Structures are given as structure tokens and as C-alpha cells.
Amino acid sequence: MENVLDIVDAIAHEKGLSPENVKEGIKTAFIQTAKRLIDEDFTYDAEIDEETKSIRVYQTITVVDDDDDDQLYTEEGDVNQGFIALSRAKEEVDPDVEVGDEFQIEHDINSHGRTAAMTLHREIEFHIQRLVENELYNKYKEKIGSIVSGRVTRVDGDQTTYVEMDEVRAVLPMKSRIKGEIFKVGDVVQAVVRRVNIDKTNGIHIELSRTSPKFLEQLLSLEVPEIKDNIVIVEKSARIPGERAKIALLSTHPQVDPVGATVGVKGVRINAVSDELLGESIDCIEYTSVPELFIARAMSPAIISSVIIEHAETEEDTDKAIVTLPADQKSKAIGRSGINIRLASMLTGYTIELVEAAGTSIEGEQAVVEKKDDISSLEALFSN
Q1: Are strands 244-251 and 281-286 parallel, antiparallel or unpaired?
Q2: pTM for this structure?
């Protein structure tokens, strides 16, 4: 093929690929074409001449001893086309050859006529498409956990939403949508990249999510400049999508209040994020590495009397936090349908057991919680 480098440059420019990758794709296409047209058992290689801009395909044959049957024949007893016996090589190729020498037999693909042209065209298309998919795979794999946006192109019978994002289509499964959300064709959707897969049959597959805690964190980063600039860090987050969430915030600057900066004046920042999440209530608490204090903050708005940590005896079990509180704070600690204690457990990573000051024990589910002023007395206790 003449002017193959011009073809390489054109494909690289059109598809946004590197010329070197396109060269390798073209070479692979020629090698596969040779296998299909000549003999798939042959060992082929291809190289591009930078001066003539042409490509040549050749078969490499290695010289071995006459009695080296392991190389000269396949396991099925057929002749191995990649090797030649020394005596035959001396007779047919060069009387001075030695064992281990290699020589090449060049093959002209064009000599196979129209069939070759059609086969080569299909092979080039196939390998260039694989390059494009690999580029997209690497690009979006780096975006896992990051927020993206696109336009809805289809919603199927299972309520799976298909979203067009620049050069690729992604899917938003129903399980990854917030309860009550309904999308229609033409809607613009924001979500985080949850998973990226690629295979030879279906190509690249990108799955989105609007229920992941990462989606909440990314929305906060867009809305709160202090989080975007890493002045405030979201240390932990937990969600029950569409209902309630808790985030633990840490300030890297002594003069910045992480909760105040995130909530914004009159709640304007946190409300903007809540609106994107269908009114999901978002509790903000200040993170601390002291587990007892962190758990107490996570249990707000309940007022906590004390927290005792019981470490798990085995790796399979989780650590337990025994939280003592006044009887009239029990309903606040548990929350509607147990949502507060579930979120507190999810946020802190502890199994939480509630104990009334009178001594009655109540097992809680996992949960996540935020900081409130009504636990200031407990904070003072831990700071002493």
C-alpha cells in the first residue's frame, strides 16, 4: 500500500488518536489480512518505510537442526511454517546459513486482488475502532467517581436511561436513580461515573449513578468553592438517596468553619445541592478523629450523654459504640423509620447500640450523622 503514512495521519486526526497507535493498528490489520488470505499458521510481521511511506508484510522463518522435530512439526504432526531444517535452508536459501538464522519471505497483499482490498478494509476498520474504544476506556476510567453530564436519548421498558455524553453513550440503571426520578428524552442529566468496562463483543460500557455518596460529594465540590479548593475536605459521607444524607467535613484552614462554608448564607449552597437530589435532607457535621466525639456528633440532633467503644473480637465483626442518652432523646436518635441511626452507623462505621440513661438497651441499625450545637457539652468533656 502506497502513502500509508498519509492514511495514518488522516485517521489519527479524524479519530483523535496518536499516530503511533494508528501505525500499530494498521500493521496489525495487514498481518491479520495476510493470515486470512495466505495461511493462518504462518508467523507474519509488518513494517512501515518512513521514506517511501509504504508498508511491507513478511513471513519470518527460523533455521533449526534437521532433527529438531519439536520445532519443525506441530503437536498434530503438521509442518510448522515458522521453521526450516538446516539442510533445506542451505539448499533453497543460502549455503552459508546456520542454525538460529532468520530470513524473510515478503508477501504482496495487493496481488490477491479485490478480496484482499475488502478484507484489509474490514481489518483496518476493526482495529481502528478498537483503538478508539481503548482511548475512551482509558479516558472514562480516570473519571470514575467524577461527575459528568449528558442528554437523555432513550428510556427503555426497564426504565434504564441512556445518556449521550460527547463521543460515547452511557447508561443510568433504574437502581442508580433517586426514587421518584423520571427522565424523558432531551433532559440533561448529571451523575457520577460508577463503572467502566470494555469487551470485544459489546465495546465500551459506562454505567452512571445518582445514588452513590460520591455524587453528593461531587455536587458539593461544584457548589462550594472551599471544597473545590480543598480548604474544606469531605472526609466521609453516607446517603439514603432521596431521603437524607450526612457528611463529615474537615477544614484545613483555622479560620474557615467547614460546616458554615458548606451550608452557605441562609443555606443557599446546601439547598442548591439538595434540590438536585430531589429535596434530600443533608446533615453537615465537623469531622474529628476521636471516635467517641465523632459518633456523638453523628447522632445529632439527639443529645448524647456518653459514648463507649467496644472493639470487635474478630475481623468479621464490626466495632460497637454503646451510646447512652436520656429517654426523651431516643426518638431523635433513631429518627423516622430508623433513618438517623442508620446513617450515623454508615458514616462512622460502628454498630450503634442505644442505652437509655435508666438502663433500657435498644439495638440500632447502621447510620450517619452530623454536628449540632446541642452536643457542645459532650465536646467540652472530650476536650478536657
Answers
A1: parallel
A2: 0.73
